[in-house]
């Protein structure tokens, strides 16, 4: 799954309001990636965007409002999970997108995740966005079931997707290790093998409080 906070939405036609939003959100992404949450200010965003600061305050009110709008804008992109013809291929492609978003320097994705710890508004918006993105990616598991790669109606798609993508965040965000070009495929393969063995059985998740959910 591509990191949903790491992509700039496609430009949409519109009047001055749309143009101002584009300029301001582009400025937020740049300021956040370069200076982190601590360096993100309404004045700095207004200056970079070339917009009067009263306009920024009137529409977004504070830094939390800017962060929420950046996150919501990420949900507006026209993105679809890859369809490579196999579950392993799809999960590998998703992981490659995640790795790409996390290793680019400076990484807006990493900066925004850090910022969410300082803003309750941003944290809630990011949780909603991730939930929506995981739901969107469940088709990857549905296709695998249709192809006979996984037991029909017995796989908890959300648990499988989290297991497949989590190693990327653990390695690159928590440990801050150098990117491993083999990790996207290895993590995908491990999740596929576990799923085939029944580790993400929806029936097991419902019956066993200790099972993955």
UniProtKB/TrEMBL annotation:
Organism this protein belongs to: Streptomyces ruber
Keywords: DNA-binding, Transcription, Transcription regulation
Cytoplasm in keyword set: no
PANTHER family found in the cross-reference section: HTH-TYPE TRANSCRIPTIONAL REGULATOR RUTR, TETR-FAMILY TRANSCRIPTIONAL REGULATOR
Gene3D superfamilies recorded: Homeodomain-like (1.10.10.60), Tetracycline Repressor, domain 2 (1.10.357.10)
GO molecular function, one term: transcription cis-regulatory region binding
PROSITE patterns named among the record's database cross-references: HTH_TETR_2
Domain HTH tetR-type: 18-78
Protein name per UniProt: TetR family transcriptional regulator
Pfam families, sorted: TetR_C_11 (PF16859), TetR_N (PF00440)
InterPro entries with a match to the protein in the record: Homeodomain-like_sf (IPR009057), HTH-type_TetR-like_transc_reg (IPR050109), HTH_TetR (IPR001647), Tet_transcr_reg_TetR-rel_C_sf (IPR036271), TetR_C (IPR011075)
Location of the DNA-binding region in this protein: 41-60
């Amino acid at each position: 799954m591509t990191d949903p906070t790491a992509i700039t939405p496609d430009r949409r036609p519109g009047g001055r309001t749309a143009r101002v939003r584009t300029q301001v959100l582009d400025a937020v992404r740049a300021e956040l990636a370069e200076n982190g949450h601590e360096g993100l200010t309404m004045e700095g965003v207004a200056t970079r965007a070339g917009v009067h600061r009263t306009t920024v305050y009137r529409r977004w009110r504070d830094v939390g409002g800017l962060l929420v709008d950046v996150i919501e804008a990420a949900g507006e992109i026209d993105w679809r999970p890859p369809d490579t013809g196999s579950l392993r291929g799809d999960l590998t492609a998703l992981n490659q997108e995640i790795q790409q978003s996390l290793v680019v320097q400076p990484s807006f994705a990493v900066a925004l995740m850090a910022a969410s710890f300082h803003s309750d508004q941003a944290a809630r918006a990011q949780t909603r966005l991730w939930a929506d993105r995981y739901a969107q990616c469940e088709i990857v598991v549905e296709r695998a079931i249709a192809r006979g790669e996984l037991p029909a109606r017995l796989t908890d798609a959300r648990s499988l997707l989290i297991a497949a993508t989590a190693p990327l965040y653990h390695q690159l965000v928590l440990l801050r290790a150098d990117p491993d070009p083999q990790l996207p495929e290895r993590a995908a393969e491990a999740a596929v093998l576990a799923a085939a063995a029944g580790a993400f059985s929806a029936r097991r998740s419902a019956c066993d409080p200790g099972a993955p959910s």
